[in-house]
Structures are given as structure tokens and as C-alpha cells.
Amino acid sequence: MKILTALIISIIVCSCASPETELKKKPLKTKSYTFYNGSKETKGNLYIKIQDFVHPKTKKKVSLIGMIHIADRDFYQAIQKEIDQADIVLTEGVGGGSTSPVLDLSTTYLFSTTSHLNALLGLSSQHLLKDQGNWQNADMSLSQMSRGALLSDKLSMLGLIPAAAFFEPTLLIGDIASKGARLCGLRHSYQSSLRHFIFKGDDEEEIGESGDKELILGRRNDWLMQEFDEVIVKDEIKELVMPWGAAHCPELELMLLKRGFEKEECRWQRAITIKDLKSDDPEPSSWRFPYLFSWKTQEDYDIAVAAALIKFNTRQENAKLSLAYGLSLDFQWGKSASKMSLVPALFSDKLLSWKTGSQFTLGRHLLRYQSTEGASEFELLPLFATESEDDKFTFTLAPLMTSVVSDEKGSHIEFTPHKIWPVFYADQEARSYELCWPLMEFSFDESNSLNSMEVLQGLLYEKQDSVDGKDRYVSLLYGLLYENKKSIRLEYQRFLNLYSKKSSEEKVEYNWLWPLGSYNHSPQETSHSFFPLYSSSQEFDVEAKDSKFDVVGGLLYSDETEFTAEDDDNETEQLGSKDEDDQEKPKTIKTQTRSLLAGALYQSSKKTEKDQFKESTRRFLFGAFGVDEEGGQKKIVFLWIPISI
Questions:
Q1: CA 20 to 30 Å from 506, out of 60, 350, 419, 482?
Q2: Considering its fold, how many domains does the chain have in total?
Q3: Mean pLDDT throughout 341-370?
Q4: What's this model's pTM, rounded to 2 decimal places?
């Protein structure tokens, strides 16, 4: 409820200092590609890192740019100059339809809220960036993401959908507050305070992307670097730019270093002005009622109804109308091309898909037309199909399993049993096959190994692929009955809710009889529990570890040990005058507390410093009786009254 809280905070007048686009005082060493030069109490500005790399042998240059979806207009103008100079730009952008309506619905709703936030914050969208002919999408499609997504990932994404019901009224409150601030002449003060509240975090995931790292970050990073390896070896590529989300960049940086690239210049570009906000940009025209929203700028015009279930927008001479986040209707038109698709809710196949002059599909191979430069295909199955490519023309009579092929050498007849739909259908170029659709679909890779198999539209699904051939995913009953996934980043097994295991380099998790039993272990923490009998946890630090043990949720018995660091005021002042290496370490205080029957029968607390006793407290019978000791002084508590000894 971060935004809701921000909307009701007091409006603070912001500084009017002249803004600077680049950060003069660089942050200390940090892996993050975002830096906020303020604090949680004081306003600053948000900066994004641009890191340059050069390969010592090939002299090829790579620039890694941390990106965020909304920022100042000046930021995107500066980034546009950076990417226009490159020979190729490997862009981020999950697109296309997925095989999971849940994933489609969730991700599309997330993107639909961007323009709503822009209107409140007075920021621009990354859609300001324009392709000058050197862009290449290097991201996964929604289909590729959803096929390997665990059921738990999909359920967590599904949890975003009910948030729409709460998010829309929150935005309405913000819109009313924004208009009130404008009438009082405090537009910039209001937006500055709102920006500070949202972007003041010092964690890259708080500002950048969050979610399952294996799904959202890891797999997509691997996919990008696969594209990178194919592109960077080309002789004509001398300079390459990768503008990807800031949360992706720390790992991408390590991947580049492993490939022999060396770091060069590092620049920090201001992305969001907060402290120095004084924009002369025209304010967007917007109005809002519950579940009805309109927003208009120089580039965009959006209308959203019922939490964007119905949405219309225009952008860069293109327009789009979508129903149910594109799951039922997705209609786009513009100068270059128009396209439309109707997607049934239960299946991933488009019922109707059409694109101006190049594509038309009705049903599953029932009627299909596709045209590209130098080639075209037309299918009316199960009757006939035609293919044309350069000087070659093929006419197939599906019921007779016979094709007439005509090329520059003449005409001849071929036996073609691969297009008897729905009995059997083969896409030989993609090496994918369908048997009695929707009974079975399968595909092979270049080495003729089984790449994927699907029975009854995912009732049984197996996928082996992608990066280094080490990824494998198997599911039964859409993952409800059984899931097994193994990749270079993650191993996961689950059978019903009886047992699951999830392990990665950072953490191992076990669950049995979910949500009853669990065991988690990482370098920072170990915990295990069996509800409602007991729970135990330990958090590890450099010098100490916190621990907690409860029986029946702490009602019967509880034992907790906590380590805290304490500084005296005098010592804090002295630390400021010392070098960082010479600073004294703060005192470590160990506190141990125990209780029986939630403290009703017995409760004790003991503090020590470097194994030296500091103070203790013991209480019995709701605290009515007990003994306190501190600094050599003892007190007896009788009927809640302390008596000094």
C-alpha cells in the first residue's frame, strides 16, 4: 500500500535548484545499477548507471544501460542518443501471447497500470524511445516464459489480478489529491513528494524488478546472452548496446566479464528528478472515475474501463483496442499494418488471427495464409495446401497425401503424408508435429532429440531445451499433480501438496504436507517447522546468529536469542573523525528470552555483552512475582511491586 500511503502524506514544497543531468558525486562501490542520492528522510534524485565494456582482443564495445519503465523525458532523450550510435541494440520486451491465460492476464494488467502512474507522477514512458533501424528484440516471448513457469509462479502472478479492485480506487484518491495540489499552485511539490516516497528505496529490486528471480531475471538473462553470442561475432558489429531493466544488469555484467570483456567508463544518468523537480513539460490531460480512466499527452492517448478490462490507446501513429487484456480480442491498426486476433479463454491457439497483407489464420490449421518476402503459404485443411518460395511451387492434396512440386528443373510428384490434419500435421521447418490434435504435439531439436511433448493441451507436458541443453520441465495435470524442473539455476520437484523440493545456489527449500511442514536453508538463514507443533529459525550474521524456537506457536514454550549492535553517542561522534578501516565496531548485545504458556506461567530475559552479564529479568504467574538484576543491583517483584535489595 505504498502508493496509498504516499497519497495522504503532507505536501512538501520542493527545492528550486537548477537540475543537473549527470551525477557529479559518484556512489561508493555498488553492484546496483540504480542509485538514489537522497535518503528515506531527505529528497534526492534517482540515477541509472551506464557501464561501458571493451574486449581487449576484438576491441568491440558493449554498453550496458540500466532501464526503468517510467522516468523523466530528458532521461529517455539521453538514452536515445546513446542507442542511436550503436551498430545494434539488443532490446528487452516480453511480447506475444503465452500458453497460459493467467500469465497473459497478469503481465498485461501490470503494463496497463504504467500510464496511470505516469499521470500521477508526471513521468514519461519508455515508449518515447524509437527504433532507428538498429533494434533487435533479444527477450523471451510470453509463450516461452509460461511453458517453463512453475505452477507456484503462475499462482503468484494470479494474485496480482485481485489487486486491480484495490488499485483503481487508490489511483482515484491520488488523482483528486493531484488536482487539489494543482489548484493550490503546488503541482511540482506534490509530485516531488510522491516520487520521493515511491523511489527512495536503496535496494535495486525495490526500484527495479521484483518477483521470482529464476523466472523474471535468470532465464531471460540467459536468453539475452544467447542472442548476444550470436550477434557479437559478426564483423560488422563494432558497438553494441543492451538497455535492460536495472535489476537484470548486475548479473549481465558478470556474464560479460566471463566472456573476456573489461570494464571501462561508468556514467550515472539522472532518470527521475525529485529534489530539483521544476519541469516545463506540458501536464498530461487526464480524468478519472472509479474504474474509468483517460490520459492524454503529446504521444499517447489512453482510455481504460473496469481496471483496463476494456482498453483503447494510440501511440506513435498506431492504435490498439483490447478486451480482457487481449485474451478475447486484440485489435491493432496503424500506417504500416493492421492485425486482429480472437483468443479462446481455455486454449493458447488463436481462434482468428489476421495481419494486413501477410497473415490470416482461422482455427487450428483449418484456414491459414502467410506471406513473407519471397515466400507464401496457403492451407485449407483437410483439403489442400500450397507453398511458394522463389521459383519453387508446391500444391498438396491432403486426403491423397500427394504433392505436385514445380521448380526450375520441371514438375514431379512427391508422397507427403505430413499434412493430414487433424490426423497428422508436420511443420518440417520448425520440426514440430501433431498427432490427432489436440491429443499429442511434439517437436525435435537439431540433433533429433525430443525437445517437447504435450498431451491434451498440457495435461501431460514435457519440455527440454534451451540454454546449453540443460533445461527440462515435466508436468502432469497442468502442474497440479506433478512438476519436475531442472535447469542450470534451479531444481524443483513437487507431487501434489505432499512433497516439494526447490534448490538453487542461494537456497534449499523442502515442504511436505503443505502448509504443515517446511525446511529452508541458505547461507543467511535456516528454518524448519511443522504446524502447529513447533517452528525453529536461525539467522546468521558475520559475528553472531539470531535464533527462535516455538512450541505450538509460542503458546506452550518459546526460546529466542537476538544479537543487536548498540552505539553510544560519544562513540558515534568519534567514529566520524576516523578512517573507515580504523572505526571501532559497535557493541554486540546478546538478548535471550524464554517463556512458558505465552508468558503467563514464566518469562525471562537476559542480556550479555561479550559474554559478560549485563541485566536479567525473571517473572512468574503473569509477572506478579520475579527477580530483576542490573549492574549488580537486585530487585524482588512481589504482586507486581518492585522491592530493592
A1: 482
A2: 2
A3: 75
A4: 0.64
